[in-house]
Amino acid sequence: MPNYHIWTIGCQMNKADSEQISSYLEQIGYRPCPKPEEAEIIVLNSCVVRQSAEDRVNNKINALKSLKRGKILALTGCIVDSRVDGLRDRFPHVDLFFAPQAFSELSQFLEDRGLAPKGLDSGLITHRPKPSAFVNIIQGCNNFCSYCIVPYRRGRERSRPMAEVVREVEVLVSSGVTEVTLLGQNVDSFGHDLQAKPSLADLLTELNRINGLARIRFLTSHPKDMNSHLIERMARLEKVCEHLSLPIQAGDNDILQAMRRGYTVEQYVGLIQRIRQSIPHIALSTDVIVGFPGESEGQFRKTYDLLGDLRFDTVHVACYSPRQGTIAARKLNDDVSAAEKVRRREMVEGLQECIATEINGKLLGQIVEVLVEGREKGKWCGRTRTDKLVFFVDEAVHTGQFVNVKIEKTSPWSLQGIIAGQSK
Ligand code: SAM
Ligand code: SF4
């Protein structure tokens, strides 16, 4: 059997796309392989949200030059824009460039070379190695935050028809999946472009009815679009997990405005308060950019202090990275030095480590329900409804099971415990 190798960096959307590509390649008879040198087909799924990610992608593509001999090398993800000619000049050893989600271009390429049967649906996922699955519900983004390349690479918002999403989840559940994570750059705007104008709350309500499905998550939410109706529905639907990803990006109103985020600090704080009132034990995650053009020490301090007040479970912090073509890169001067950005990032990381240590420490001695996803470094691992990563050791096989774990050790990033019985 021939092999394929797939390398993925970036967001959950990229991971979901890679799952789809893997599923297609396995349907046409390829086997996954961890080493690119042993593969006949290599797929690189790229991210260019920050320069550091783009640098990793460039290095990876160039490193594969010497390995190439006779292999098919395909490049997808956000590095692929409409000007493929420029990419072809830079990377002549790459055989195929296809935009995110343009799976049919990969299948057409392989069909044309007699490597795949004609007409197989490359969008169809037939196997799921894990009990939890990503499901795309909306592509693209209409927001044009001033720093962000995503709308330029993934296009405008396109919701999938609700019936199609429900059908996909039903098929996944019938193949053993018990948890789904609905994906989109801005899931709260799901449905606005569909004829019947369903909302994310409507979709959650439909999915909540599916027998055999135990958990529903969704990400990413946008603070300007998250409304009380959705919060109320989240609180009421028992399968919707107590976990929300709600990027704040900055804690200063002038910076938020320059970022074109469409909300103020006060509106964001009010939203968090309403969410916590309705869903008291919810775990909240956020994203922050430090060193945005013009960000003064005082403005950064406001972000830092706000993170200390709001106490998120997880904070993803990034140094601002100018992305060619975005509004910020065209109009604003990248005037915070690289060293200063790193200092601010490390300050946020230090603060968050303390906060997460305290939040997770409260789980010591408690019994939590874990959906076991598989094994890592000799231990079973899985997640709680609040998205905490939990490890435990046990002889029996637990993949796909819901187990109760008594927490014996905590850290800012994960929990460890002993099995305290099956939960479902
Ligand atoms: N749609 C989500 C939102 O509204 O926040 C997130 C999408 S974005 C691909 C993921 C994260 O990357 C953002 O939350 C932001 O913190 C970060 N990011 C995006 N562009 C960036 C840039 N130019 N420099 C640094 N970080 C950036
Ligand atoms: Fe980028 Fe803003 Fe869209 Fe998120 S909402 S993908 S940060 S433009």
Structure description:
By secondary structure, the protein is of the alpha/beta class. It has helices at 12-27, 51-63, 84-90, 103-112, 150-154, 162-174, 200-208, 228-236, 253-259, 265-278, 297-310, 327-331, 338-361, and strands at residues 3-8, 31-32, 41-46, 72-77, 96-97, 132-136, 138-139, 158-159, 179-183, 215-219, 243-245, 283-290, 314-319, 367-376, 379-383, 389-392, 402-410, 415-422. The protein is globular. The two termini are 38 Å apart. The structure holds S-adenosylmethionine (SAM) and iron/sulfur cluster. Residues 11, 49-50, 147-148, 150, 185-186, 220, 222, 247, 249, 287, 289, 318, 320-321, 323 line the site of S-adenosylmethionine.
| CATH homology group of the largest domain | tm_1862 like domain
**Count of beta strands:** 18
Strand order of the largest sheet: 2-1-3-4-5
Instruction: Summarize the amount of helix as a percent range.
Output: 25-40%
* Poorly predicted ranges: none
CATH architecture field of the largest domain: Alpha-Beta Horseshoe
Compute the number of structural domains: 3
> So what's the CATH class of the largest domain?
Alpha Beta
Mean pLDDT: 94
Q: Any idea of the CATH topology of the largest domain?
A: pyruvate-formate lyase- activating enzyme
Q: What share of residues are in beta strands?
A: 15-25%
User: What characterizes the major β-sheet?
Assistant: 5 strands, parallel
Indicate the radius of gyration in whole angstroms: 22 Å
**Terminal Cα separation, in Å?**
38 Å
